[in-house]
What we know:
Elements: E1 11-18, H1 22-33, E2 38-42, E3 56-60, H2 67-70, H3 74-78, E4 85-92, E5 95-100, H4 102-106, E6 109-114, H5 117-133, E7 138-141, E8 145-151, E9 154-160, E10 166-173, H6 180-184, E11 196-205, H7 208-215, E12 223-229, E13 237-243, E14 247-255, H8 256-262, H9 266-274, H10 280-283, E15 289-298, H11 300-303, E16 309-310, E17 313-315, E18 324-326, E19 329-331, H12 333-352, H13 359-369, H14 372-376, H15 379-388, H16 391-401, H17 404-415, H18 418-423, H19 426-429, H20 436-450, E20 452-453, H21 465-471, E21 473-475, E22 483-485, H22 490-493, H23 495-499, E23 512-519, E24 522-529, H24 539-543, E25 546-548, E26 556-558
Parallel strand pairs: 1-2, 1-10, 2-7, 4-12, 10-17
Antiparallel strand pairs: 3-6, 4-5, 5-20, 8-9, 9-10, 11-14, 11-15, 12-13, 13-14, 16-17, 18-19, 21-26, 22-25, 23-24
Helix pairs in contact: 1-5, 1-12, 12-13, 16-20, 17-20
This protein binds flavin-adenine dinucleotide and iron/sulfur cluster.
Amino acid sequence: MEAPTMTDEHEHYEAVVVGAGPGGAAAAATLARNGVETVVLERGVDAGSKNVTGGLIYAEESAPYTIDGLLPGFREHATERPVTDYYIHNIAGEKVKTFDITQGHERDTEWADAVLRRKMDSWMAERVHELTRETGGGLLTGVKVNGLLRDNNEIVGVTCEELDPIEADFIVAADGVNSELARAAGLMDWEEPEEWFQGVKAVVDMPGDAINERFGIDDDEGEAHLFSGDLYDGVRGGGFLYTNESSLCIGNVFHLDSIVAEEAEVQELLDALLTHPLLAQWLGEEYDEREYSAKLVPDSKKAANPSPHEGRLVLVGDAGGQMQAQGPIIKGMNHAVTAGALAAEAFVEARSRGKPSTAGERYEQRLHDEGVMAKLRPMRYEVASAAGENDITTDLAERLLDSPLGRASVRAADTAGLLGRAYGSPYLASMMPDTKTPYVTLPTIIAEELGTRVADDNTIEPPSLGERIGELTYDTDVGNPHIVLEDDSVAASGAAVTACPVSAEGFGGGCYREETVQSNGDEERVVSLDTQPCVECGTCAVVADTQWEHPRGGKGVEFREG
Ligand SMILES: Cc1cc2nc3c(=O)[nH]c(=O)nc-3n(C[C@H](O)[C@H](O)[C@H](O)COP(=O)(O)OP(=O)(O)OC[C@H]3O[C@@H](n4cnc5c(N)ncnc54)[C@H](O)[C@@H]3O)c2cc1C
Ligand code: SF4
């Protein structure tokens, strides 16, 4: 789409923040507290209605900002349970070897709580609206920003579907993964599946008493469990289970390129976790899935933009690729908060020196000085991946691990207590190569060598994909599809049939399907698209040849849990 230019008088604010997730909320709260006239635009019908997380929100001791510091009362009103115990389970068939990694999780952690995004984001939005209204701005929902307003090629504001263009001295793109603003500014692209993860999850209804009894915890305690090994057909990634007040979040996060390479049906991989015997102890016999959801997640090691600004525009959070996978522990919300607050502070400082246009450079410098960039793109990973992420090294590591010597070493390492410590080490986690070895082979061999058979009968029956879609709420923008297939050949777009979390081979009710058409007397396999059941995860923007944008404000899927 042609970016409109500034030819008329437009409404002007000192700052416009796009997106009311943790990054946008932190930026807006900080701007407003410093007296900056700020308007926040959120496309969801309600803040959080478009958002999905695992999710544990961390407050790191080393971080300059935490969300409860910026929005007091956050833990009391917006979160579920604190994480008091953290485990990782290595799985091979029915054999499981578990390590307690609570100590590793507590390193550099002031606190970490489980959250559901609809509840969390709507609470933050109320506080942010109160704060920004005092500056002459406010928070508007149901407004989708659809482009950058330019004057002589310089970014001077944003354009919206539902409002007239808005000019601003400072523009915060906190519009999450698949940020259309980051793309329009040329700061991020959606080309490489290697730079992304895909998360798929189920929110499972469970009374608080049952959670306490089944996990052996009190109301003010919570557990986190991670899963890896051979239950995912070789796809690189892992699973999670987090306890909320009266529900569980259970899901998987996989490298997107691996999903594509293995042609994995991602909803089936979720079912593989849900129906594993290990989960029987927690799920019991009644399974009531409240919500199915999915979203892309950037891998900061590859995607974080080291210079996330252009003119008046800055990127914060997922929009700038600032989502850290510290081995199995996922930290995106906390970095979005830090980045949002740092960006806001950079603008306040720049403005006080009479040079608001230098805010972007200051923000970049602060990300560096506060150690955020070093967490997002650790040097250790750059070195380790250069040495370890190639076929020869991977093949060697796989064969060595699977040899009698390798298996004996795994047993010896466990006897010496090294395996548990290795899993709990953020240092080692940040060097983990992005290969099958740490995600699939090592956990499988650990479970085979050291695991105990779990014989529990898991009798639950997860809903079918059709039932999952049927339970979601949509406000479909009839006749106005937000994704258009540019190339319907199987070679260009076929990967979406399996990778799309609401599509599957042979399933007629999803977004993508493969079909045979007659062309010049020949039969041809092509891909077709129906955006009605789309959960806006962003996957097909990367794995298929599409013209991809978010639906208009308030339209599309509405998550009640997130
Ligand atoms: C399955 C899964 C598990 C995860 N687990 C964890 C975890 O345990 N811990 C953790 O910290 N992180 C986790 N993450 C990552 C985390 O959710 C993100 O890193 C985090 O939400 C990023 O915050 P943000 O503010 O940058 O973006 P978002 O939270 O995505 O917010 C962006 C906002 O912008 C709005 N928006 C987008 N486009 C527009 C537009 N054009 N106009 C107006 N508004 C717009 C959206 O509606 C949304 O409200 C997980 C993610 C997934 C998918
Ligand atoms: S159509 Fe694309 S964006 Fe929508 S759910 Fe499927 S893969 Fe995700």
